[in-house]
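Reviewers of the previous submission asked for a worked example of the structure-prediction workflow described in the proposal, so we include one complete record here. The input consisted solely of the amino acid sequence. No template or homolog information was supplied to the procedure at any stage.
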Amino acid sequence: MDLSFLPQNILSSLKLVNLDNLYEIRMRTDFAVKVFVLDKFLYLSKDGCTLLKGNAIVCTKSDIDYVIKNVTEYSEYAHNNKIKCGYLTTKEGIRIGIAGECVFDGNNIVTIKNITSLNIRIPHNVSGCSSYFFNKIFKDNQLYSTLIMSNPFLGKTTLLKDLAIKLNEKNIGNLLLIDERGEFSSVKGENIDNICFCNKEYAFSYAVRSLAPKIIITDELSTKEDWKCVELTINSGLKIIASCHCPSIDYLANKTYFINGLFDRYVVLDDSYKMGQVKCVYDEEFNII
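From that input alone, the workflow returned the following structure tokens.
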């Protein structure tokens, strides 16, 4: 994994950390650098991870600027469409959430300047992590449209990537990844097409008309417009696997954007912070299967 966009002192410390267990790096100007390892936050020191705040590396404004300049290749303007949405993505699909001073033109956000915080999410390809429920969404060579649900940071994207790899190997048809934030860049295959960094409305329309997929995988259905795109696409005969920030079936059913009857399967992840741990799988009528 290429973390060379980080300042040298942080990079040197991370060499003492098992990257297989690293999921998040938090950098906040004038505060200690924190890392989420396995299931808890620790401080990052010159000797690796520590529980002792006094030994931690303190993030400076120069450290924040260093990361931004490296990830944008010294051209923040060229990446402003992502910056104003609150994130950047490295070439390897590492998503970096950003916080700072929002600049508006009327009701429209123009950019984020004076960036003070970074949330660096470390992606993991966990081979076989979707095996637990795969036979519940793919049976007799038939795929069921599926929604994967949980609170943030519990492994939805990791599961989507593993499902894409599995379905590519099954060779059951063209598979399109709608990759709004560039997090699926490591997922490749002879049956896989990837549309990056565009909104779902454009991607769904473009996909159906131009790439003729049989299956679409996309992350984070979060608006009424997203759900309408899914509805139109499923009604045209395609299968969709998607994710959604939602902790439970009851919570989802009460959302104003929810459209009942679209998905055949609902996979709810456990909130125990074991990445990708499945709590329950439901059918289209919300019965446990």
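The first strand starts at residue 22 and ends at 28. We consider this example representative of the routine output the project will generate in years two and three.
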